[in-house]
Amino acid sequence: MAAKKILIVDFNPQNLEAMVQLFKPFKFQIIKATDGQEAYDKFKEEKPDLVILEAILPKLHGFELTERITHETKGQIPVVIVTGVYRGPQYRHEALASFGAADYFEKPFDKEKLINSVLNLLKEEAEIWVDLPSPESVTDFLSGKLESSNKAAKTR
User: Fold this and answer.
1) CA 146 to CA 140: how far, in whole Å?
2) For the chain, which residues make up each domain, given as ranges?
3) pLDDT in tens, 84-104
4) Architecture of the domain delimited by 5-123
5) Which of 14, 42, 55, 92 would give a disulfide with 62, using CB separation of 3.0 to 4.6 Å?
């Protein structure tokens, strides 16, 4: 299975690198950008599976970028906003409800919560199917139950 791609966007080089290091152990393919326009261009070119971005970005604001990505992908590509500027429930609500962000974190953030959010958002549908029985085995099982039920009914 190909590695998942994550686009990480932050205008601050130290914050950008810290975020990259946070997700490095997970073997994601990480794409970096330092402004909103560069991020949008890389998004269209690289087609990442998830985007993590700072709300305050030069050239294209993070909320606007979130809205564009969400609109263009019909919500299929999750965008996680991690910001040090917009604090409070009103901004979180606006990011989630109006701009379509999948999650919202204020800096300083809980690293475990961010990692868990990203991992949950990236869960593959294929992983869900692995634990399910095949349609044939379900059919065979139900046929066996039906036969047993019919035999029991006849012996009464």
Assistant:
1) 10
2) 5-123, 126-156
3) 888 999 999 999 999 999 999
4) 3-Layer(aba) Sandwich (3.40)
5) 55
